Amino acid sequence: MDSCKDHQQEWESKCLPVHGPIIVGAGPSGLAAAACLSQQGVPSVVLERSDYVASLWQHRTYDRLKLHLPKKFCQLPLLGFPEDFPKYPTKQEFICYMESYAAHFSIRPRSTKAVQTAEFDSGSGFWRVKTQDSEYISRWFIVATGENAEPVISDVPGIDKFHSPVVHTSGL
């Protein structure tokens, strides 16, 4: 693996080797991956572009939202929902569960770390993941950004003839 010193001029940042996977995203999938790895004695680093866990749940859902499936189908591995939660937890209850889950497994995401690039270096066999101020290097890389992390506007035939703004609902 190239040392960080080899790339210091092209990338002036902290170079941080990670002895387990780099996980991008501190939502349900990222937290579950980190917890399961931890239970097997595998360390990981969770990078999160916002400053808290379950950011999509906190900012891209409406306040009256409830899980559309019973909680037994939505709980994360190794730690279920509290018994006193209703069958269909509310948005706030789900967020509380995510925060408690992270605390229970001592998962401390590195907040406000937006990944700018992630490249696999085939020569060294390592992933190089760059944020705005650091570079993380690991043999393993897990993307857990969520299915709704980025808005996608479909390429609809004739859209060029539509003379009003085209927006994604997440931007409203």
Report on the structure:
- This protein is α/β, with parallel strands linked by helices.
- It contains three helices and seven strands; from the N terminus they run ββαβααββββ.
- It has helices at residues 28-39, 55-59, 91-104; strands spanning 14-17, 22-24, 45-47, 117-121, 126-130, 134-138, 141-143.
- The strands form two sheets. A four-stranded mixed beta sheet has the order 1-6-5-4, with no helix packed on it. The protein has a three-stranded parallel beta sheet with strand order 3-2-7, with helices on one face.
- The longest helix has 14 residues, at 91-104.
- The termini are far apart.
Provide a compact summary of the structure.
Helix content is 18%, strand content 16%. By secondary structure, it is an alpha/beta fold. The relative contact order is 0.22.
Keywords:
single chain, 3 helices, alpha/beta, flat, 16% strand, 4-stranded mixed β-sheet, 172 residues
Task: Report how far the terminal alpha carbons are from each other.
Answer: 45 Å
Q: If you average the pLDDT, what whole number results?
A: 89
Largest sheet features: 4 strands, mixed
SS-based structural class? alpha/beta
Taking all Cα atoms into account, the compactness measure Rg is 19 Å
Number of helices: 3
Q: How do the strands of the widest beta sheet line up side by side?
A: 1-6-5-4
Shape: flat
What's the total count of β strands?
7
Share in β-strands: 15-25%
In terms of per-residue confidence, which ranges show pLDDT below 50 for 5 or more consecutive residues?
A: 8-12
Write down the secondary-structure element order: EEHEHHEEEE
Proportion of helical residues: 10-25%
